[in-house]
Amino acid sequence: STRNMPYKNRAELKLNLKDMCGAIEDINKALAINPKFADAYRVRGRIRYKLRDVKGAEEDFEMFSRLRKTR
After folding, report:
1. Which residue among 9, 12, 67, 69 is least enclosed by CB atoms within 10 Å?
2. How far is CA 61 from the centre of its chain?
3. Long-range contacts of 12-15 (CB under 8 A, 24+ apart)
4. How far apart are CA 32 and CA 3, in angstroms?
5. 3-class SS of residue 1
């Protein structure tokens, strides 16, 4: 679905601007629209890592890797 792309793109922008609350909110919206959106897990992993949620980041990176392999 292309409906989730604007949220993913905006989340990356907010991540770069260090707006972590806004970034996590947007990336979660992207994942709510499409829970199999691999790149959103990569982005959320980066956000979680920046928030020092290492376990959450690892889970997201694992999901990203798993979904990429099933393409």
Report:
1. 69
2. 9
3. 12/43, 15/43, 15/46, 15/47, 15/50
4. 11
5. coil
Model pTM greater than 0.90?
Answer: yes
Q: How far apart are CA 42 and CA 28, in angstroms?
A: 12
**Over the stretch 21-43, which tens digit does the pLDDT of each residue have?**
999 999 999 999 999 999 999 99
Is the distance from CB of 30 to CB of 18 less than 8 angstroms?
no
Percent of residues in the chain assigned helix, strand, coil, to nearest 5: 80, 0, 20
Strands (E), the chain: none
Q: What gap in Å lies between CA 67 and CA 41, rounded to an integer?
A: 9
Cβ-contact 11, 47 below 8 angstroms: yes
Name residue 70's amino acid.
Answer: T
Residues 15, 70: Cα–Cα separation, whole Å: 27
